[in-house]
Structure formats: C-alpha cells, structure tokens
Amino acid sequence: MPTFLYARALAHQQELSHQLAQARAAGFDVDADHVVADHSASCISTRLCERPEGRRLVDLLRRGDTLVVRWVDLLGRNCDDVVEAIQCFIKRGIVIKTIINGFTFDGATTDPVQKAVQDSLIAFMAGTAQAQAEATKDAQRAGIAHAKANDATAYRGRKPSFSRQQFDQVQALLAAGTMNVSEIARHVGLQRMAVTRIKADPTATEAMLVNWGL
Questions:
Q1: For the chain, which residues make up each domain, given as ranges?
Q2: Average pLDDT, the chain
Q3: Distance CA 96, CA 164 (A)
Q4: Which of 128, 155, 182, 202 has its CA 20 to 30 A from that of 169?
C-alpha cells in the first residue's frame, strides 16, 4: 500500500521539498508522485475537505494506505476539524503518521480503553496545535505593530539566524511539549541559543523577522 505525504506549502516550492526531505529523513518511503500539497493561503482557514488539494487527497486515499503529515495541525483549521479529519480517516482504514515525534493513529486496536486513550491523545494534540497557532498569530500581530512603530529607516538590528519556517517549527515543538530545547535545536537545525531566545520572547523574535521582511 502506498504512503502519501500531505504538505501545506504556503509560499515556495523549496518549502515543499523541505517537507518531503523531512519525511524521508524520518524513515518514510514517500514517492514524489504521492505528495499532495496545498499552496493556497486559504488552506489555513478552511476544512481539509474544502481545500483544493485536500479534496484530491481524500479521493486518493484507500484502505490500508498511510498518510504522513508533519504535524496534525495540517489536517484542519482548528481542534474540532483536526479531530474530525483524523477519526474519519481511521474509520476508512487509513493509517496516519506524524513526522514530528512519530505518532501513529489507526483503527487497529479494538480495546475500548486503548481507543479512549488514542481519542484523548488526538484531541490533546489538536488542541495544542490550535493554541500554538493562535499564539503565533498574536506574536505576528505584535511583531508587525512593533515594526510599524519604528521608523522604516531605523537600524533593524542583527539579522535573525532562523527563518520564518524554523520559527514556526520551534513554536510548534515548544507547544507540543515533547522535546527539550536541545532536542528542538537539533531537529530544526538551529543553535540552542536561538531556540532559547524564541522560547523566552516569541514576540520580540517575531518582530525581528518582520523587521527583516522574513
């Protein structure tokens, strides 16, 4: 049975290539023909089944297939959407696996206690993803306000050592709470100091990215 990667490539093809490389580095055998990516900005605010490529993904997947995502937040716009999408896939016999932390969700277990634990874990991860997304939006708004409050010709400070994508990844991993700062730094490819700075003051680090147009 094939393994599919669902990616949300918001800006550039490079972003998609990075997500595919991450999946392969995590041990997933994903063929390039089995990568489904949404490039539309509206995919952040719409349900999976309402996205252009989300609908195609739903049509492509068959019982026994494996769906790989970087993190569960890609499967919905909020906690309820994510839980609904995952449970729908499980009922169809599709296995869902995450690149971050290697979680697996499937319908293999029939034990009611194990099913309850799995449902609770799905809800927790989805809720954490939504909370992190809302915190990131708040940081972005604060960063933009900070940048606008300063003269455009003012000194912008040292250029950040991390990209927008790395900033978002660190925020997601910090919110998940399953890795320490050193582990996150290795996973994302940053210095430990950079991750510590993001953790200590996400608003200020967000402002740095905005000041540099990143």
A1: 3-108, 119-211
A2: 79
A3: 27
A4: 155
Helix (H) or strand (E) holding 105: strand 104-105
Virtual torsion, Cα 198, 201, 206, 208, nearest 10 deg: -90
What's the pLDDT tens digit per position in 63-105? 999 999 988 888 887 888 888 889 899 999 999 999 888 889 9
Neighbouring-strand partners of residue 36: 6
Q: Helices in 61-180 by DSSP H: which ranges?
A: 79-91, 112-149, 164-176
Q: Three-state SS for 6?
A: strand
pLDDT value at position 166? 87
Nearest partner of 195 among 175, 181, 180, judged by Cα: 181
Q: Which of 111-120, 139-148, 197-206 holds the top average pLDDT?
A: 197-206
Rounded distance between C-alpha atoms, residue 19 and residue 48, angstroms: 18
Q: In what order do the strands lie in the sheet with 35-38?
A: 35-38, 3-8, 66-69, 95-98, 104-105
Strand 104-105 with 95-98, pairing: antiparallel
